[in-house]
Amino acid sequence: MPAPLIDAARGVGMGSGAILRRVELPIDLQEHGMMLAGAIPTALLAVAVDFLFGQAQYWLVPRGVNPLRNS
What string of DSSP letters covers 17-43? Predict the structure, then answer.
């Protein structure tokens, strides 16, 4: 966050909560690169964990109960 924007907000009498809600957050939400830098690894991690749990379920559930392993 550029310091002049925060100084201007203080100059018009905004408190710290108002500066956070009206100045800092709206500008930070427009940084699409930063949002993707967090969203892509999170999505990949979720897919990997789902795959690992699926594999664990396949191998840990006994053959007679698991319809996928009846053969």
Answer: HHHIIIIIHHHHTT-HHHHHHHHHHHH
More confident residue, 24 or 45: 45
Domain boundaries in the chain?
A: 1-30, 32-64
pLDDT at 42 over 70: yes
Residue 63 near residue 70 (C-beta atoms within 8 A): yes
Backbone phi, psi, residue 29, to 5°: -75, -15
**C-alpha span between 26 and 19 (Å, rounded):** 10
- Full-prediction pTM beyond 0.70? no
Taking the C-alpha atoms of residue 20 and residue 8, their distance in angstroms, rounded to an integer, is: 13
Q: Distance between CA atoms of 18 and 60, rounded to whole angstroms?
A: 53
